Every structure is written in C-alpha cells, then in structure tokens.
Amino acid sequence: MIVLTVGTAAILFCVTLLIFLWEGARRARSGRPRTEFWDTIVFDNWTTQLVTICSAGIRVSMGFQIGLAAAAMAAVILETAGSRFCDTAMLSIQRASSSSAGPLDLLPTAWRHCLAGRVSGLLYFPILAFMVAIALVSTLTSTILLFDLEQGHISAPMATHLKAVGFDNSSMYPYSSIAYWKSRPLAHWRFAETRPGEMETELRTENAVDTGDVYRAMLPFDSATDRTTLEYYQGPAVVINQRTACFAPTFSNATVQWESGEGIAIPGLHLNATSIVENQTDFLGRRAVPSEPNFLTEVSSLTVRRNDTGVLRQLGVGISPDNTTGRGILDLQVHPGPDLWIDPDEEDRLQSAYLLLWVTLVEYSVIGGWSLAGGLMKNDITTMVTWSTHPEHAAVFQKILQQTGDPAQAVQALIFRIFQMLYYDWLPIFDPTHQVTTINTQEVLTPQKWTGFAVVMAIIAAHFAVTALTMVLFAKRTESSLLGNAWQAVSQMVSPETQDIIRAAGGEGMKDKEVEVLAKSAGRSREAYALSSGIHSGRTELRVRQI
C-alpha cells in the first residue's frame, strides 16, 4: 500500500508541477499574467532542472509500482494458471521481491500459456507486455519532455529603475557637434505614438494638407535591444506633437522682395517649434519586435533599396496609422497635467526650446556646410562645394512623397527623424532622472509545444490503468500470497511433489538449466504447478496441476 499511495502521490505532484510549467508558458506566450513562482523558475534558469527532477520522480515512482505489479502478477499466475516446475522458483522470488520485481522475467511464462491456448495467457501476457513497454519508455520521460522546450521571447517581470529621460534646458546650450542633416541616422528608432480623435485646432483642408495631431514619445534607451524588447513603459518621457501642415501658395500680383538678412548671407528658414514638455506617459505594446527597420540606402553604394518598406511602415505610410502592432511601435497614453520643463512666461528660456530643432538645420561652421539656411556668401568655400543631405534622409522623404503625394507626411517624417538623431545623440548626457517602470521581453527556455507532455501523460495514464487492473486481479484471484514476504515464498515452494528436486538442486549446486534438464528427465516438464492447500497437511504449497 505504501508503494501505491506514496508513488501515486509523487507522480501526481510531479505532473502538477509540469502542468503548472506548461500552462504558465502558454499564458506567457499569449501575454496573460502568470504567478511569481513561475517567473522565478523560468527567469532563474530552473526550467530544465525542474523538468529533470519531475521526470526522475515520475520514473522512480513508476518503477516501484511496476515492480509491485509484477510481483502481484507472479502471485496471480502461481495461484491460478500455474507454471512449469522450472519457473516456480522465479515466480516465488518475484513475489518476495515485491517492488523490485521485473515483469520481463514473467513474459516467457505468460507466453507459454498463450501458446497452450489458455485464456489466462491471453490476459496475462498483454498486461505483462504493457508493463515492460511502460517500464522501458518511462526511462525516456525526461528526454521526451525536453523536446518541448525551446528558446522563446516572453515578457519578463516588471522592473523599476531610474532613467534620464530628457534635457535640462536651464543649463543646456543648444549645440551639437554632429551635422545631422548630412549624417546617416544610427538607427530607425522605435517610438510610441497616439493620434487623438479630437483636436484643439481643426484639421486644415482648404488649399492645404494637414497630418492632424500626432503625439510621439521617445524611448529613453540607448540600446536597440532595450527598445525592441520593450512591451510596457510607465513614467515621464519626452513627448512632442508632430503635427505638420503644408499650404500651397497663391500668387496674385505677386512681388518678390529681396532681403539680405545678416550681412550678405541668405536669411534662415523660419521655423516654429512647440516647447518640449515632460509628460507622465504609458507605452503599451502587444509584443516586442524582432528588430528596428533597416536603412533605405546601401552604405557601400548609397543606392536606394527598392523593396524595403520597414521604415515607411514604422512611420505610418502604406499601413493604417492605428495599426501600431503592424508598424512595430508602441501605443502612447499621455496622462493629464504634464510637468513643463519651461515656464511659458519665461520668454528667454522658451526661445531656447525653439532652437533645439533649428540648430540641427543650420550650421555656422568655418568650412561651411549645407543646410536649409547657410551662410552662403560670395566667393566663400560653401559656394564652391555642394553639401547635400544624406541619401537616407532623401530616400525617406522621396519615397513618402512618391507613394502618398502628401508633402506634409514627408516633411513630418524627415523632421521627426532628425529630431530623433538629436535626442539620441544627447541621451548619454541627459540630466533629469525619474523612476520608471518597464516590462521587456527576454529570451528564455520554456515549453513551446505540448507534444512531449501529451506523450508522457499518455504513458502515465497507461501505467495507472495497467497497475489498477493488476491490483484488481491480485485482490480477486489470490488468497495465499503475501507480497514482499520471503519466508512465505520459500516455504510454499516445498511440498511432497517438489522436495526431491529441490533437495537435488540444493545439494549438488545445480544451475537453472541443469534443474530444467533434471525436471524433464523426471517427467515434470509436462506438469503445471500451482499453489493450493494440501489435503493432508492443510498448508498452502506447490502442487501438480495437469495442463
């Protein structure tokens, strides 16, 4: 009973742990919550160890129970159908061995019953054959289960840490040493976006194209892996409204007036920039993305790739802007009451915010440079060298303009990408730090399939069925067998019909094959021996039963 109860409890406990592990993996893949204990197992790299330990527990428990079932079958055979004299010692030993018995030794006896046409053989042989098969396959439970484990990305536990998320305008001077206009962006950075349904300023449609309000937030992470694996972000972030409108000029009696501007330089382009504010935001994403979009131009030849649309899709071109999952970006939720970095009443500090974007387009370098407004003076070096924008910027602008015919979208994408270059260039020196909460995906080893698990469960179910059937047969068809009792097994072997051969085998130290030859010479090979009560002695002993 101990082997049955403790073994069954151990198997069910191990199965429960495996179900917990497999079901937790399924919930993690679908983005549903799971327990902290499951996270501890998976993210502390205990998955393989847990599967191995559970497999060992199942295998050992099944081994003991199969041994007990084999001992029970030996008792059933001895008390019902009987066996050849040469097999009786083995069957008695199996009864005495209890949980360490082996069903493989019983198969020849059951097979001989089948060949003899006995109904008992047709029942006992399949049971023993199933026991042997289950015992063999159970040794592979760990391997079978490990076939279901694969590396995969799932959401890691929520983490809280300090991040520098933006500039400190009170001490920052709007200057950068990088010529963003002429430089290739280091990446096409992932971002968060929302497009509110209601706008404070109506959409301009008369003789104009207007993108409407498009709020975008930067992800304050230098590493591409941190950005691509990000699924959730809660905390302050730099949020800008990328609304862009382009108006077609109307000429009626037009007069062109030339203004020399500063000295003899061409005056700069007039730009209006919204003050950057720090908002409490949430970034929500259904899942991480494999990578950020590839570049549109080849570095070696500076030629435009024809079929790469990842950048355009990220910016909402060629796909519904509301399909943030397809675009590989995050959903942005801006909480009310943002904290302003700049007091709107402080005109001087407010002007510095306008310069953030403006300085990226204007370069006052001694050797000159190309920009929307450059110091183009007569006989200056900048008039002799053509400084064009980087092909990556031109490719983004041209592809959007050619596909949509919307200059507002093209300008919006171009300016936003340059603003991102500015942001990530200065990210390492950002001053304001805030506590943020993030969830990133992490590549871990988890169950990705149910095939191996189903096979192991089928093995366990078959084991329970065979063991239960064996115990029922033992309870109904035996009366004189006590499993695990050696002296009873030995004493029941001795009877008037067997004692002569037992003495001969013991006295001369015969081997099993020699005893078989002796039994055949004594005419015992045609006889079947089974346990029964002696008529004169009243004790249970081996007696001849004619086949």
TrEMBL record:
Keywords carried by this UniProt record: Membrane, Transmembrane, Transmembrane helix
Name of the protein in question: Uncharacterized protein
Listed transmembrane segments: 6-25, 122-147, 450-475
Source organism superkingdom: Eukaryota
